Amino acid sequence: MAASSSSSSPPTAQHRPDNTAFTQQRLPAWQPLLSAGTVLPLFFCLGAAFVALGLGLHFSSATIQELELDYTGLGNSSCARCAQLSLRANHSTCTCRLRFSLAQDFPAPVCLYYQLSNYYQNNRRYSISRDDQQLSGVASSLRNPAQECRPYQKNATGIPIAPCGSVANSLFNDTFQLFRVPSSGPEDEIRLDKKGVSWWTDTNIKFRNPEPVNGSLAQAFKGTTRPPNWQLPVYELDMNDSSNNGFVNEAFIIWMRIAALPTFRKLYARVQHSNGSVGLPRGNYSLTITYNYPVLLFDGSKKVIVSTLSWMGGKNPFLGITFLVFGIACILTAIVMLVVHLKYQHLSEAD
Amino acid sequence: MQAVQCSDYALAQFSYLQRLLFVHGRWSYLRICKFLRYFFYKTFAGMMSQIWFAFYTGFTAQPLLEGWFLALYNVFYTSYPVLCMGMFEQDVSAEKSLKCPELYKAGQKDLFFNFRTFCLSFLQGSFVSLVSFYVALWAFEDKASIKIVGDYQSFAMIIATSAILTVTVEIILDIKFWTVFSVLAIFLSLVLYCLCSYFTQSFQAYLTAPTVFQFPDASKNALTDPTALLVILLSVTVNIIPSLAARFLCSVMVQRTMSEMAQVRDLKMKTSMVELRSHVRRDSHWSRSSYAFSHKEGYANLISTGASLRSKGPRVRGELNGFGPTSLPGQEDSVPPADVACSRDAATQQTFLPC
To answer: Can you tell which superkingdom this protein's organism belongs to (chain A) (predicted)?
Structure first.
């Protein structure tokens, strides 16, 4: 390009680039610096807050009472006979009884949970083996279960299974009955409320029964059959309460909400307490278990947990301790940073 | 004209090369490096928790995070703030960049993004994913709770929320040049996370297509549980505190922080704009324009060795353009008459990582 000292016309307007703050990169901006005046107080305050929170959580968790009873039936325990019986196919129902005593009153609310271990509900093939459309009461899916349910889609004679899939087929079917054993006199049964234990969306939207035919739920399920491992069909899960029967049975719903980890607890029932704030007074109790569910085949274990609840749920020592430890670590880090800051400030002032 | 049309950069005047390199080139290098570092970090932080989960599912490829979260993580939830950082970030102003050309050496020496910084971002991302996963696991594994928060969908949403909040706080710490767009981008990301989670987990969506929207009400149930909120708070703080402490210690232990702060205070006053303004008067004999360097070696070695670039004012531009008295390449080891604050600043700037 030749030197252009002669042609001194200014460049025309359309060749000039935009002269806005955005295009010329002169946007107004705030450029903060990490200074000791903001970071150190932040660390100290955060550390103090976490220590306080940790102590609060720890004491709150310490007041929660929890009792774990393992009833897998290994060795010589009370449910060993039932456990051995469950290993055989087509076994008859077996009940076993666990006796325990509470040293202190368990304040209301008291809940009963069952815990399974080494049980991979989060296995991929297992967790996709379900048909959510069938479970939400869609009429067309009731007799046409999805392909993912295989091999629990249709039974040997070709009749569709309702509810289909491995998740439904493996429904936990142990039942528990809790009795208080007074020092004299007969045992009296403590009522367990098996309703109101699942999420609202589950009970009311995700799981819906098909429309009853002539007022009968059994008729609505005509043309389907129960899953192979079930003893009762789905419309007989709770004959006493029609709002807890069929797909909306809460024990079924809770089982269908798969657990994240191989060891998990699921809520079985709440203890219905008639007298005010004492859920379970101290004393002797006995738990009668109908042992149906075989876990010894895969080295699993079964437990019953009786637990009181607080605002943060059940007993959780992990949170309290972790907050406490982390709060202390924050404060120590803040002290170290303060020392470093003072040392380097001294050095740079001497420059 | 043809050369201009197929070139990456076309300069109308040779003097523009100075700004192109020292201001825009340096900023561009800085932006790309910070963008890349953060991008790797947030990918590891968000996604590696699925690897840890595989250990607990018998390696059956069960995803931990919801499908919609995975799809929208890199599109809506975390992309806008890092995009703003990649477009607007500046460490020093244009004027300071021109005064301290030594800062350009950071790009030549690969200081801001190299194998070491990649490993650091990988380790930091892995640490974040480990903390998010294991804090949730130990808190929920076999604990009784009110709303059965140990179930798969709640567990997934808690870990997802911890990851999103952690990477958002990390970008807040990373961005050093806050424009309106940065603030809006962060705000928009969080709002989009809430909105998209709400809509993909609403029960109307579930009823329309149960296999597509598989998590009805998962967030609403999981994130209203007090234990879940405490777990998220703990995860986010355990993830962020080491990063914050490391940044602070770096900024303290690098020498001469006070001068850097003084420089920044200068920056807050009016700085010169980066305008395409010709500094060469048309009626002087400096007015050679539009250089092409194809046949001669040219003056590029002056820039790469930093020989004549002790610019202080317009008279020095004559030196840059190759006219007038200049320090020849052989004389580059003479003491440069730069202001002392400039070389100090250069020293602080070159220890950029990981601060």
So the answer is: Eukaryota
CB contact at 8 A, A309 and B146: yes
- pLDDT by 10s per residue, chain A, length 351: 444 444 445 555 677 778 888 888 888 888 888 888 889 999 999 999 999 999 999 999 999 989 999 999 888 788 888 888 888 877 788 899 999 999 988 888 899 999 999 999 999 999 999 998 899 888 888 888 888 888 899 988 999 998 999 999 999 999 999 999 888 888 888 888 888 888 887 888 889 998 888 888 888 888 899 999 898 999 988 888 888 888 999 999 999 999 999 999 999 998 887 666 678 888 899 999 999 888 988 899 999 999 998 888 888 899 999 999 999 999 999 999 999 999 888 876 664
Give the Cβ contact number of residue A128 at 10 Å. Answer: 16
Collect all residues of chain B within an 8 Å Cβ-Cβ radius of residue A123.
57-58, 60, 62
Tell me how close the Cα of A227 comes to any Cα of chain B, in angstroms.
22
* Helix/strand/coil for A271: strand
Nearest alpha-carbon partner for B13 in B275, B293, B273, B278: B278
DSSP conformational letter for A239: T
Tell if the CB–CB gap between B287 and A265 is shorter than 8 Å: no
Q: Where are the alpha helices (DSSP H) in chain A?
A: 36-62, 80-86, 124-127, 132-135, 139-142, 166-169, 200-201, 217-220, 250-256, 317-349
- What are the distances in angstroms from CA A52 to CA A38, A43, A184? 21, 14, 47
| Contact check, Cβ <8 Å, B152/A122 | yes
Are A250 and A197 within 8 A, CB to CB?
yes
Q: Mutate which of A22, A25, A330 to test chain B, going by most B C-beta atoms within 10 A?
A: A25
Tell me the C-alpha distance between B238 and B248, whole Å: 16
**Contact criterion met (CB below 8 Å) for A140 and A223:** no
Interatomic CA distance for residues B195 and B201, integer angstroms: 10
The label of the residue with tokens 């976490």 reads: A50
Locate the domains of chain A by residue range: 64-321
**At a CB cut-off of 8 Å and minimum separation 6, what does B34 contact?**
B85, B86, B89, B112, B174
With b for 16 or more beta-carbon neighbours within 10 A and e for fewer, the B53-78 pattern comes to beebbeeeebebbbebbeebbeebbb
H/E stretch holding A117 reads strand A110-117
Whether chain B has a CB inside 8 Å of the CB on A260: the answer is: yes
ipTM, 2 decimals? 0.89
B-facing residues of A in 266-285 (CB < 8 A) are: 266-267
Chain A residues 311-330 within an 8 A CB cutoff of chain B = 311-316, 318-319, 322-323, 326, 330
From chain A, the residues in CB contact with B206 under 8 A are 205-206
Evaluate whether A185 touches A196 at the Cβ level (below 8 Å).
Answer: no
How far away is chain A from the Cα of B115, in angstroms, using its nearest Cα? 26
Q: Cβ neighbours of residue A217 under 8 Å, at least 6 residues apart?
A: A209, A235, A242, A245, A246
Q: Is A312 in contact with B216 (Cβ distance < 8 A)?
A: no
Name residue B3's amino acid: A
- pTM of the prediction? 0.83
Angle between helices B79-88 and B26-47 (to 10 degrees): 160
* B84: chain A residues, CB-CB within 8 Å: none
């989060």: which residue's tokens? A122
Interchain proximity A265–B149, CB inside 8 Å: no
| Cβ-based contacts of A314 with chain B (< 8 Å) | 143-145
* Nearest residue to A44 (alpha-carbon basis) of A336, A334, A350: A334
